[in-house]
């Protein structure tokens, strides 16, 4: 049973043909790493799955629900897609706890007590239970990104999309964020990650998708694909990042 399915998805920005017939099937519990050069369409692909971008042809379903561009709020809620970005995007004027409680309160209509319980449980999951009352600026980049993960998890997403979430971090902070993702993967969370972390893709990921010029150029089991790339383009890419 597929959790996320893309069928012949085409996306244009004006005349620019950015996604050129993407077929992709992701099953519950899979950890899919999307790799490829800058400009190959990775972020656009995630944004289409999350309903943040329109696409012009083809179809996308998440958990059997079609992703259309109408009625965004209702659709997002129904689809349960969480997304985390490179730059955390926490609200600076709110505490960590308030950041996490916001969507459960407003979107899911949870009571304050319920939302707080969820927020504390999610902070525990990312190892930051003592930061409930802190403001984001008091936290390191790695801690802020872990709060962003907790905030996404508070909405009980079926799939978590991560767009280069360790790319803005100092190297010594990358590991703590990857460790949280690894734990989520172990718990069975479906993850779709645009990442440059090849070790993570190989060791934790189940599948790797290599994008090139708006197409899925090569895809397969993460260990096989990265150790035995078939196309010259993927060989070159692996040579450049390792
Ligand atoms: P990646 O994440 O792989 O670096 P993107 O999905 O961000 O690639 O971009 C794919 C292509 O689409 C690039 O040529 C980029 O310049 C273009 N693009 C991305 N976002 C927009 C936008 N909002 N408007 C116009 N062009 C865009
Ligand atoms: Mg990108």
From TrEMBL:
Family annotation (InterPro entries): AAA+_ATPase, ABC_ATPase_HisP-typ, ABC_transporter-like_ATP-bd, ABC_transporter-like_CS, MetN_ABC_transporter-like, P-loop_NTPase
Keyword Nuclease: no
Main location: membrane
UniProt GO MF annotations: ABC-type amino acid transporter activity; ATP binding; ATP hydrolysis activity
ABC transporter domain span: 4-238
GO cellular component: plasma membrane
Short name of any one Pfam family annotated for the protein: ABC_tran
Keyword DNA-binding listed: no
Compartments in which it is found: Cell inner membrane
CDD domains per the UniProt record, alphabetical: ABC_HisP_GlnQ (cd03262)
Matches recorded under PROSITE patterns: ABC_TRANSPORTER_1 (PS00211), ABC_TRANSPORTER_2 (PS50893)
Membrane-related topology note: Peripheral membrane protein
Keywords on record: Amino-acid transport, ATP-binding, Cell membrane, Membrane, Nucleotide-binding, Transport
Classification via SMART domains: AAA
Family (UniProt): Belongs to the ABC transporter superfamily.
Protein known as: Amino acid ABC transporter ATP-binding protein
Organism for this UniProt entry: Marinomonas transparens
